[in-house]
TrEMBL record:
Organism classification: Eukaryota, Fungi, Dikarya, Ascomycota, Pezizomycotina
EC number(s) from the headed UniProt entry: 3.2.1.58
Signal peptide: 1-22
One Gene Ontology term of the molecular function aspect: glucan exo-1,3-beta-glucosidase activity
GO biological process: one example: cell wall organization
Name recorded for this polypeptide: glucan 1,3-beta-glucosidase
Reactions catalysed according to its record: Successive hydrolysis of beta-D-glucose units from the non-reducing ends of (1->3)-beta-D-glucans, releasing alpha-glucose
Region (Disordered): 27-46
Residues covered by the Glycoside hydrolase family domain: 118-387
Gene3D superfamilies with a match to the protein in the record: Glycosidases
GO cellular component: cell surface; extracellular region
Keywords: Cell wall biogenesis/degradation, Glycosidase, Hydrolase, Secreted, Signal
InterPro entries, A to Z: GH (IPR017853), Glyco_hydro_5 (IPR001547), Glycosyl_hydrolase_5 (IPR050386)
PANTHER family: GLUCAN 1,3-BETA-GLUCOSIDASE I_II-RELATED, GLUCAN ENDO-1,6-BETA-GLUCOSIDASE B
Gene source species: Meristemomyces frigidus
């Protein structure tokens, strides 16, 4: 029997050995078998056999919940990202933030500044804490997705500051205390998987060099060995191996897929918890491109544990920003047919990121326009101050609030119908990027399980509702 470090090295070799013949996978799915044994909770087997981790109410758990992937009968993940915490993202903070007084633009440059270590530890201790977990559980969130950088485990030859794993461990303890589950998200990979700020280092994309892929596997080996242990089986539901790897700019999708297989094998080799999910972002390839690999990894197991993460936003591209509210709702409902696989496929899918905010303006006659520029007198747009949404005298803002709630419900109803569930981006952030603001000002404090506009997708013409 060879050791885990040897296994990780062999996994890296396999990535390059198979590269010459690897091809993008074609769509092919088959029915998954329901899990046996332990009762399931939130779609995941609870290792204690008791079914419900305190204090989640059994009323929120479907009596026929199984691990049958993407089934509308499975108890759904209702999660939130803890972005901007263990990986810095400058755009997510207000003017008086950890970046104030520095020229830093990302984690790499921030960690290079004088006094960075003390500032970083203060940020970790204050940005998110136990009170946030209590609030999330009360609001109805069942899961958290926690982004962390690879450098928390190996910062060799970089300016990155270590220490985030201790904070992750503390967060996992809070999640357990409040009956929540954790997806550990390796959000920043060696060499940067996309050249974006959220990878830790803006600029070039050098993730798919042999050394950097090797370091990725080594770090995942460490994470899987630690958090795949049975002592975390009641709280850590999965490990995401890479976040949003680009499909160009230095990355080859064939290598990305081969990496995913070898990362899965590595984690499953070292993890004692058989129910641990190993998740990969789809690399913007679409779910069907991953079906063949999923069949290879999942079809021979009682309960599929290789899963896909999709990120679905309607506030990033020019076409989406031009939509009125009816267009946004129709597009969200249509995702059921355009982005997901049929129920019972061998590939569990999570929506790892989406947003409750879009760029629209509401007019006094209750019509809406795309964008953030008013075309009619007295119109108001989604970038108004938060308190305006609950000002009863501000009828335009009230209409805008209801439109945003319709959009929210269209998204989450689609995700809960077509996938294992969702994680909104993010707990904290500017305006309606903040889940705290969404719950307070758009949902008006309602529990996440509350539906104000039932049948929203049926009204938009979606055949599935």
């Amino acid at each position: 029997m060879f050791g885990s470090s040897t296994f990780a090295a062999l996994a890296v070799s396999a990535i390059f050995a198979s590269f010459a013949t690897a091809r993008p996978h074609q769509f092919h799915s088959r029915h998954a078998r329901p899990s046996q044994g332990s009762p399931t909770i939130g779609g995941f087997a609870h290792p204690s056999g008791t079914g419900v981790p305190y204090p989640v109410s059994s009323s929120h758990i479907s009596s026929n919940a199984t691990a049958n992937t993407n089934s509308s009968t499975t108890s759904k993940v209702r999660g939130v990202n803890l972005g901007g915490w263990l990986i810095l993202e400058e755009w997510m903070y207000d003017d008086d933030s950890i970046f104030s007084g520095t020229d830093a633009t990302d984690q790499w440059t921030f960690d290079s500044t004088p006094g960075a270590e003390a500032a970083l530890h203060n940020h970790w201790d204050t940005y998110i804490n136990e009170t946030d977990f209590a609030w999330m559980a009360k609001a109805g969130f069942t899961h958290v997705r926690i982004p962390i950088g690879y450098w928390a485990y190996n910062n060799s030859n970089t300016p990155y500051i270590t220490g985030a794993d201790a904070i992750l461990e503390k967060a996992i303890g809070w999640a357990r205390q409040y009956g929540m589950w954790v997806m550990i998200d390796c959000h920043g990979s060696p060499g940067s998987q996309n050249g974006q700020m959220h990878s830790g280092h803006s600029g070039s994309v050098d993730w798919q060099t042999p050394d950097n892929l090797g370091l990725s596997i080594d770090v995942l080996n460490t994470i899987g060995s630690k958090y795949g242990a049975m002592k975390y089986a009641d709280v850590v539901m999965g490990i995401e191996i890479v976040n949003e790897p680009s499909t160009n700019d230095g990355n080859d999708p064939e290598v990305t897929m081969t990496f995913a297989k070898n990362a899965y094998d590595t984690i499953k080799y070292v993890a004692a918890n058989p129910d641990l999910y190993v998740i990969t972002h789809d690399a913007w390839l679409g779910a069907s491109k991953w079906s063949s690999l999923a069949q290879t990894l999942n079809s021979h197991t009682p309960s599929p544990r290789f899963a896909l993460d999709l990120h679905l936003y309607q506030n990033q591209d020019t076409a989406s920003k031009a939509l009125d509210i009816h267009g946004h709702i129709a597009a969200a409902c249509a995702w059921s047919q355009t982005e997901f696989l049929p129920p019972g496929s061998d590939l569990p899918i999570f929506v790892g990121e989406f947003a409750g905010t879009i760029d629209i303006c509401a007019n006094p006659n209750n019509s809406t326009d795309g964008g953030l520029s008013c075309t009619e007198e007295s119109c108001q747009c989604t970038n108004i101050p938060m308190h305006s949404y609950v000002d009863s005298a501000n009828t335009v803002a009230t209409s805008l609030r209801d439109d945003l709630r319709r959009f929210w419900e269209a998204q989450v109803q689609t995700f809960e119908h077509s996938s294992m569930g969702w994680f909104v981006w993010s707990l904290k952030g500017p305006g309606l990027w903040s889940a705290e603001n969404l719950v307070q000002f758009i949902l008006q404090g309602d529990h996440l399980g509350t539906t104000k506009f039932p049948g929203i997708c049926a009204q938009a013409g979606s055949p599935w509702e």
